[in-house]
Amino acid sequence: MTTEAKATVFVDNDRVVVTEWRFAPGASTGWHRHGHDYVVVPLMDGKLRIVGKDGENVFDMKGGVPYFRSEGVEHDVINATEGEYVFIEIELK
């Protein structure tokens, strides 16, 4: 059984949703579709395994280096780091 990542919403207003995602080793978000454009800000270095419709990839994340994705992305995000992993997700409404 896969552990679920813990989502903590810090801001949810008419313009943005800001969520902290905290992953135990091997934890995952579960399959989901993004309904908004979004920016992810890793809080630490680590690795994430992203499983999408076209397969899976492992990405090296760098603390403090953000990335942007467009609305409609469908995937499962899994912590591939040996320890806990945390990032902030900012969804643009």
Question: If you had to describe this structure to a student in words, what would you say it looks like?
Answer:
The structure is a single chain. The protein contains no helices and nine strands. It is mostly beta strands. The strands form two sheets. It has a five-stranded antiparallel beta sheet, with no helix packed on it. A four-stranded antiparallel beta sheet has the order 3-8-5-6, with no helix packed on it.
- Strand tally is 9
**How much helicity do the residues have?**
under 10%
Q: Judging from the principal axes of the Cα atoms, what is the shape?
A: globular
Radius of gyration: 12 Å
User: How many strands, what sense, and barrel or not for the largest sheet?
Assistant: 5 strands, antiparallel
Individual helix count: 0
N to C succession of SSEs: EEEEEEEEE
Amino-to-carboxy terminus distance? 33 Å
Average pLDDT confidence is 97
Strand percent estimate:
over 45%
- Record the strand order, biggest sheet: 1-2-9-4-7
Q: What structural category characterises the helix and strand content?
A: mainly beta
Poorly predicted sequence stretches spanning 5 or more consecutive residues? none
